[in-house]
Recover the amino acids of this structure.
């Protein structure tokens, strides 16, 4: 008797600490929502990819991050050689892929009498193969970097890496082999996976070549990130983040139309909110769906509502939208919590209690941006309510919007300069103008003035990466600055194309190839969800981008 009780007690304690006893969800249906999300989990399509050749990483100061891949030999030359002689080689798969790697080892002479050891290093870009990872200076886990030591006990055999890999290049270095037999490598193979199973129509030949190229790479980027959730990057993080989902789902609407993936992600985030019902910044799928506890990222909680609205508009799936409406409605309470009577956000408190992200940009003051995003959220949530016939439940929103717009103009807008300013020294940033414009705070003429002024302002903080840059393009379009939207998109994403991008990057500053929010550029993600947005712009606004 005593033994049994102790046993139960131990299991119960272990369960509590491992988190497998799920706390009661804020929403009565929270648990079912996670189950529903699991039912919507897509089957991945598999495509077997063979290498296109061998390359050498060559230093070139004009190449992206100082390295370029030069073709040196065919893959057959590797298959015909003793790997004990070759020792080290870089294989090129010809494009970016996400999936599982395998190769065969075959005896050339003698009997395999000892293990063989390799180091395999995978890279999305050439510099990742050429740059030593250690001593590691970065501040995200070193283990994200895709280098693996593999020990093979017998030859012949097939080597399979369990870890999912993402990239184009692979270095194979021999770390140990017996001198009493020889072997060769054959059948290098990558089984690429994605939940995309459709190829959207090509853009007409008449469309600018640069735009067609950007669209193609954007589609590839999105496809790589669309796995069993909208991942942020298939190499690093590999998980669902609300903000990345928002932009991916927009691009998906105009390309792959895999709405079920959006639906799954909406249910997952809804079922895994915090105890207050707020949508968390990020959730994980394994070993079972669970949130990153305490990851309160305000921008992403808000963008949940907008994603739901756009999902409904694209699918007419009223059932899902109605079911998840309470989640959207609850996110508006965040706004109520932080907006004062006068309609102005209490930025200090919000910034202290939540992560306000907006951009990887050092020193960015986010006061105006969060005010703008709150208004944008109210507007979109109200539209969602109208579509669902639920306006009555959020009656005060139209007045709230008016009040917040007024407060923004009164407190944060410098009329003389025609620019929003905030923080110490009245900081001027793209972020502030962009989000106020998306929040509809300015008239078309004022918006044009603000965007023109910020672009001409030498000290203005410019976007730190493609995430903010995407909202910049949207702000230009909303302000009817279509020519500028087109040229900015071509210049920015075309800059990555010119630097050899196979997929678009997490971080891109045209003036600094080595920029990394994590203090080590190889840990950046070079196939990143939020960088796929040209697909959305080009295909949603053909009159601007396809003319
Ligand atoms: C990065 C992730 C993701 C983003 C968050 C805020 O680490 O890669 O894309 O949403 O930060």
């Amino acid at each position: 008797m005593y033994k049994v009780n102790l046993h139960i007690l131990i299991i119960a304690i272990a369960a509590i600490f491992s988190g497998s006893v799920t706390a009661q969800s804020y929403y009565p249906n929270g648990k079912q929502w996670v189950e529903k999300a699991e039912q919507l989990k897509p089957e991945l399509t598999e495509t077997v990819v063979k290498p296109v050749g061998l390359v050498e990483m060559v230093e070139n100061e004009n190449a992206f991050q100082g390295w370029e891949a030069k073709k040196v030999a065919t893959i057959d030359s590797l298959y015909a050689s003793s790997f004990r002689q070759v020792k080290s080689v870089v294989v090129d798969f010809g494009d970016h892929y996400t999936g599982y790697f395998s190769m065969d080892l075959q005896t050339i002479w003698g009997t395999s009498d000892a293990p063989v050891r390799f180091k395999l290093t995978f890279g999305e870009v050439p510099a990742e193969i050429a740059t030593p990872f250690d001593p590691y200076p970065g501040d995200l886990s070193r283990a994200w970097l895709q280098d693996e030591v593999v020990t093979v006990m017998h030859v012949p055999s097939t080597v399979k890496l369990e870890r999912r890999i993402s990239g184009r290049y692979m270095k194979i270095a021999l770390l140990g082999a017996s001198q009493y037999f020889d072997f060769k490598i054959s059948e290098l193979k990558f089984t690429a996976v994605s939940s995309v199973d459709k190829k959207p129509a090509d853009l007409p030949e008449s469309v600018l070549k640069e735009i067609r190229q950007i669209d193609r790479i954007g589609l590839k980027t999105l496809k790589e990130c669309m796995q069993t959730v909208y991942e942020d990057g298939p190499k690093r993080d590999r998980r669902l983040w609300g903000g990345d989902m928002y932009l991916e789902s927009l691009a998906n609407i105009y390309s792959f139309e895999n709405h079920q993936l959006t639906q799954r992600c909406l249910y997952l985030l809804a079922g895994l909110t915090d105890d207050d019902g707020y949508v968390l910044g990020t959730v994980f799928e394994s070993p079972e769906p669970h949130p990153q506890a305490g990851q309160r990222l305000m921008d992403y909680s808000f963008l949940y509502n907008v994603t739901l609205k756009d999902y409904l508009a694209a699918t007419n799936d009223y059932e899902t939208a109605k079911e998840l409406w309470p989640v959207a409605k609850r996110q508006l309470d965040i706004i109520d919590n932080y907006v004062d009577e006068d309609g102005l956000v209490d930025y200090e408190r919000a910034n202290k209690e939540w992560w306000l992200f907006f951009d990887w940009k050092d020193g960015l003051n986010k006061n105006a941006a969060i005010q703008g995003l709150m208004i944008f959220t109210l507007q979109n949530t109200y539209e969602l309510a109208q579509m669902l016939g639920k306006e009555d439940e959020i009656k005060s929103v139209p007045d709230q919007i008016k009040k917040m717009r007024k407060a923004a103009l009164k407190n944060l807008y410098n009329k003389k300069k025609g620019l929003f300013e905030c923080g110490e020294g009245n900081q001027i940033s793209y972020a502030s103008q962009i989000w106020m414009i998306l929040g509809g705070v300015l008239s078309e003429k004022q918006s044009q003035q603000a965007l023109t002024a910020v672009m001409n302002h030498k000290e203005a903080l410019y976007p730190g990466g493609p995430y903010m840059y995407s909202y910049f393009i949207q702000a230009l379009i909303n302000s009817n600055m279509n020519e500028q939207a087109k040229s900015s998109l071509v210049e920015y994403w075309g800059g990555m194309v010119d630097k050899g991008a196979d997929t678009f990057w997490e971080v891109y500053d045209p003036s600094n190839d080595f920029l990394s929010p994590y203090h080590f550029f190889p840990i950046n993600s070079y196939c990143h969800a939020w960088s796929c947005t040209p697909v959305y712009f080009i295909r949603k606004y053909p009159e601007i981008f396809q003319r």
Summary: Residues 232-233, 237, 241, 243-244, 357, 506, 525, 530 surround alpha-L-rhamnopyranose (CB under 6 Å). The domain at 45-194 is CATH 2.60.120.260 (Jelly Rolls).
